[in-house]
Specification:
The complex is a heterodimer. Chain A is of the alpha+beta class. Chain A folds into two domains: 120 residues; 149 residues, Histidine kinase-like ATPase, C-terminal domain (Heat Shock Protein 90, 2-Layer Sandwich), CATH 3.30.565.10. Chain A has seven helices and nine strands. Chain A has a five-stranded mixed beta sheet. In chain A, strands 1-2 form a two-stranded antiparallel sheet. In chain A, helix 2 packs across helix 7, helix 3 packs parallel to helix 4 and helix 4 packs antiparallel against helix 7. Chain A is extended and about 100 Å long. Chain B is mainly alpha-helical. Chain B has one domain. Chain B has four helices and two strands, in the order H-H-E-E-H-H. Chain B has a two-stranded antiparallel ribbon. In chain B, strand 1 and strand 2 form a beta hairpin. In chain B, helix 1 runs parallel beside helix 3 and helix 3 packs antiparallel against helix 4. Chain B is globular, with a radius of gyration of 12 Å. The two termini of chain B are 19 Å apart. The mean pLDDT of chain B is 92. The chains are: A alpha+beta, B mainly alpha. Chains A and B meet through helix 1 of A and helix 1 and helix 4 of B.
Chain lengths: 275, 94
Amino acid sequence: MAENDENKLISSEEYKKVTEELYKQNLEIVRLNKEAERLNVELEKANEGQATLIHFINHQIKGYFGKARIIFSELLTGPEYGPITEPAKKMLVAGETDIKEGVDFVQQILRASDIEKGTFTYDMLPLDMKEIVSSEIEGKKALAEDKGLKYEVEIKDGDYHTKGDANQLREAVKNLIDNSINYTQKGTINLQLSTKNSKILFTVHDTGVGLSDEVKAKLFTKGGRGKDSVKVNVNSTGFGLSIVKSIVDAHKGRVWAESAGPNKGSTFYMELPVV
Amino acid sequence: MTSLSQLALRIIKEQELIIGPLAWIEARKVVGIHVINQNAGELSIDDNNQGPIIDRLVTQYERLFGRASVEVCREAAAPLLSELSSEQIPSSLK
């Protein structure tokens, strides 16, 4: 005899019945678990195939964009095409700009994919981070000012030497500034570069859309953009900050963001070691 | 070459998925089965009358968990049975 929940004795037959029933339930769980594992393997295979296909399509699109960009550029600069009227020139310039954005967009997705697959290789060489940050800050000034934003820059004296892939670090810096400008409708973009305790710190502060806790949690993950981000930035791929994080991680650095909440602006920090 | 100790191990491991460590506790109670290292999945079974030892293992689970547990033993053993002669196959698994 055994006891049930109410401490009443139950017969061994009842006990066996309960045990057998529990066994059957466990068996069903194990079977469902095995089925879930099998489906998961199938899903992973399907995802892998899909990722390869998307990668191939993106490469093709990038190729066509590249060709179209050359055509626009030739039409604008090649004397053999004859004089171009001002309205036509405006259209061609707009077309060339759009295509350049298209190439950058596809390039970003391809880079994210390569980084995720581990097929991306960094060309690590000694460099001066001050040079990279300064040139990127200068390059984005017009974009911010055209939007009517105040563009504040403060670069402190110090040792900004590190070892890294200049092109990729440039990309990370550009991405943080671009992000800040894209997600700020009015107010200020404040950029600072400083060095302390053998760390280089690049800070991008804005008075833009800010970050909710939900967005902050997945901000640096692939596709981790906020749900309304495309309403503010139509060119958002959702890969930008995940690429930034991958680049910074590869340089043994840190990247993080702070914000008091939605519509309260944000501050992005990128920290790299002085080497 | 499949041995009956491999067969026993396969059965115990399958039962372990369902009932956890209890599968090993029950297997240890079967006369003729010697668990050498549970974590590494090592065991041996006595050389003589190996078929009846497997039958006792199946019965041990059936006594506690009923018919469903016998089916689990059979399903677990099925992939290995083709490598055994019909005389070697324990009657509980036929």
